[in-house]
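Lab manual, section 2.4: Encoding a predicted structure.

Procedure: take the sequence of the chain (495 residues), apply the prediction step described in section 2.3, and record the output as structure tokens. A sample record is shown.
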Amino acid sequence: MGTGVLIAMYGLVLAVGLFAGRRRRSRSASDETELMLAGRSLPLWVALFTMTATWVGGGYLNGTAEFSFTAGALWGAQAGIGFALSLILGGFFFARPMRRRNYVTLVDPLAQRYGGTIAAILMIPAILAEVIWSGAILVAIGTTVSTLLGTDVRTAIVWAAAVAIGYTATGGLRSVAYTDVVQLLLIVVGLGLALPFVVDVGGGLSNILSTAFPPMSSHREVISYFDLTIVLVLGGIPWNVYFQRVLASKNERVAVQLSLAAGPLCALLAVPPLLMGLAASHVDWTEIAGPDQAQGLLENGSLVLPFLLKYTVPSWVSWLALGAISAAVMSSVDSSILSASSLVAWNGYRRLFNPTASPEQTARLVRVLILVLGLFAMTFALIVPSVKELWYLCGDVVYCVLFPQLVLALFDRKANGLGAITGFLTSSILRLGGGIERMGVAPFLPYPDWMTESSFDFPFRSFAMAVGLVTSFFVSRWSGRWFPSRPIEPGNEIR
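Recorded output:
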């Protein structure tokens, strides 16, 4: 039955995506704009659904449950709080100027302010982050399906990737947006039905909340918590997958409203996996699943949500919840693949190599790139065991190097290319100097307490971002006589 439900869900999503891709509201929009931005015609309700569904992916749901299970409600709620604040800040400060100028991608203001070559360098971590994010999310569906159905992880990954690639290449953002509507509804229904059963097994709401807030062990943990929260808040802004929805909105007003409304929705949808993870800490897994399975869960907390759906809810509920998680995975994978393809085609190929490319040529390239990058993400998920760790690193790099350059490009009229590249290099060195704990890379810069076992509580990520921002700011002013800033005029439209 579970396999049938999964196939039915894949079929429904594929059908919606293909149907939406055949609709084209804006006949005047170029093929490339239609494919990448849905002809800039998304109404508020569709834009809101696709923005929320993109953020509430498989990694978001599984990760929230895992952290609340292993570390309590504060850590479990961190992603929900961080992404909510990120979307709200994006709505207040970034959505309006980006939509007003009719940009196509995140990199467009960087190209206007710093030049195409420097923008292309800054674009690399953005593309890698999107593709690796897709791979990490595909691993989540593979793990979930394997746990619930006993099927091969690779099979689940291949099927999810194939469906997402199929409808995304067909209809671009319009297909992605309308499938996200269906996928978000599946998430709400599936997890909503599972939650009461899980809470009941955990001893009721009052019982699971009684131990939900364990005290932090030291000031080091407090510093780490706030540092990582800032990374989520500010680092969630410089992603093309976010701005693609802002730029696809019907107008500036919708772009702002979309961001401000999506933030609270993301936080709200973190509640079910948060409570489920807390409930799991009150379950006797040895009795329910057996000692071997219980030990496996203790060694790998990322399995907590699949375990809950397998052992604590009726089978029909678990199948629906499986469909919800699968929907969450595809809602993020399709968005990331389209986003990365748009960056390569628009800011790489068209801007640097073929400025005279027709809209039809660019659109064809986007479709080819969706297939290529989608297959790359799928292969990555199949063969690389540390894809999640690489995603963490890419997220850090996006925060450290892209956020300061985006801020200066939009809001500092004196920012120039030399300042941007200097700040980029400074932030990169300072970030890598803190090491990559999850991948076994030792730090090489003497941050405070870096020789101790708990060296990574120093907020070196935010330090790297801040120093890069300040460096770009002052170098731009020092070098302005020789490297004048490129102006960004209000209302400057990008075809």
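Check your result against the sample. The first helix runs from residue 2 to 21.
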